[in-house]
Write a structure and sequence with these properties.
Blueprint (H helix, E strand, L loop, with lengths): L26 E3 L2 E5 L4 E5 L5 E5 L3 E5 L4 H15 L3 E5 L5 H4 L9 E5 L3 H6 L9 E3 L2 E5 L4 E6 L9 E5 L4 E9 L11 H16 L9 E6 L6 H15 L4 H10 L12 H11 L5
Parallel strand pairs: 5-6, 6-7, 7-8, 12-13
Antiparallel strand pairs: 1-2, 2-3, 3-4, 4-5, 9-10, 10-11, 11-12
Helix pairs in contact: 4-5
The structure holds zinc ion.
């Protein structure tokens, strides 16, 4: 796998990554934007959240099956590729844009982090409580790939899982990473979140992990490399260090001015407010 800066048609410079010799630009497939890592692993971008489909010898894995129309299109693609194989759905966390599509897989085994049934149902997504939850780690052996599920604990939500395709060195971070946009902080704890990002960075920089070659798929935003995790960590670290310094906050507001958000619900100011509240300082 090599890396370079790529300019995709009609888009700004995208990820600095070339997956398995293929250009890192997504192509249209079945109405969705798909980045094919290889014939077995596809990253399917946005339309809810970033998802993955892995076609193993005996089973198919679907990570975060989107919502609405995106979920239906993804389901059709999975049906196309699954043949008669069993399907396992993995939810990186319980937000609706990641789990709403679960209902389209009534026969599937569903795995997520260790939410209690009560916590899951409080999420209000209407998705059924999963068949299996992961407290620490779980390895799924799917033929020529080992898929490592790691519950990172409370960060973006109470149980954020990351999903690593170990042979292919592809890591789906779920919403522990938002690339180029302000993070959604509903139910988040930014101190724990930042610590989780530090642990991820430590794990994937390690030589044993071949860290620098890893391809990172954020929950939202373009596919890239480990820099995406660093930028998310820096975002929290930058703002945390400036919480009492209006001039510094102003400079950071400028630094992150191109990040997208959602009105006042997901924004620079919102992040500042939540981080101050965590300190017990109000406002
Ligand atoms: Zn989320």
């Amino acid at each position: 796998m090599t890396r370079e800066t790529i300019r995709c048609a009609g888009q700004v410079v995208l990820a600095v990554v070339v997956l398995a010799g293929l250009p890192g630009c997504a192509s249209q497939k079945a109405g969705l934007e798909v980045l094919e890592v290889d014939p077995q692993l596809s990253i399917v971008l946005e339309r809810g959240a970033n998802s993955a489909i892995f076609v193993g010898e005996e089973e198919v894995l679907v990570v975060d099956p989107k919502l609405g129309k995106g979920a239906e299109l993804l389901r059709a693609m999975v049906a196309d590729e699954a043949g008669g194989r069993d399907i396992t759905v993995i939810n990186t966390h319980y937000h609706y844009d990641h789990v709403r599509g679960n209902r389209l897989y009534p026969e599937a085994r569903v795995i997520t982090g260790a939410y209690t049934r009560e916590e899951w149902e409080k999420g209000g997504t209407g998705a059924e409580y999963p068949d299996e939850t992961v407290t620490d780690t779980l390895v799924l052996d799917v033929g020529n790939e080992k898929v490592l599920l790691v519950n990172m604990g409370w960060g973006h939500t109470l149980n954020d899982m990351v999903v690593q395709f170990k042979e292919r060195e592809v890591l789906l971070t779920g919403d522990l990473v938002f690339e180029g946009r302000h993070p959604v902080l509903w139910g988040a704890h930014t101190v724990k979140w930042q610590a989780a990002l530090e642990r991820l960075l430590a794990a994937h920089y390690g030589a044993a992990y071949g860290g620098e070659e890893i391809t990172v798929v954020p929950g939202h935003g373009p596919v890239g490399d480990i820099g995406a995790i660093e930028r998310m960590r820096d975002y929290f670290a930058d703002i945390r260090a400036a919480l009492d310094d209006e001039a510094e906050l102003k400079a950071l507001r400028e630094k992150y001015k191109d990040y997208s958000g959602l009105l006042f619900l997901v924004s620079f100011n919102r992040t500042v407010k939540v981080m101050r509240e965590e300190l017990g300082g109000g406002q």
